Amino acid sequence: MLDRLFGYTLREGWKSAREEASTIYEKSARVATILGRGALSLDNRIDERNYILLHRDYVHPRFVLENDRATLQAVTLAHAIFCVTAPGVDVNDTRVTLSEYLPFEFNIRMKGVSRLIRSCS
Prior knowledge:
Layout: H1 2-6, E1 8-9, E2 13-14, H2 15-23, E3 29-37, E4 51-59, H3 62-66, E5 70-75, E6 80-85, H4 105-111, E7 113-119
Antiparallel strand pairs: 1-2, 3-4, 3-7, 5-6, 6-7
């Protein structure tokens, strides 16, 4: 509804910025803050549909390489999706201190992330 009236969506931002991101490489990574999480499916298919997202910015893909907390979360036919964990959460750390996220790494990726970065096509 917002998109039709104002050219804006909470998930992907302004229409002009979306169009720019699809043509300009330097703005081809969409950063979104996670406001909520849906159910974790047992088949380990974690993608954007599992989250309630709020668009933040379109940035250079280098953002992923320069961020120590960014890890690959999923690959679809059209996009690569990276998660950025909250400060102090390491997706590779399976010590008992992260017992709320165990037993699997994908649980940490689902519950411990604060932002998602998706490639734009």
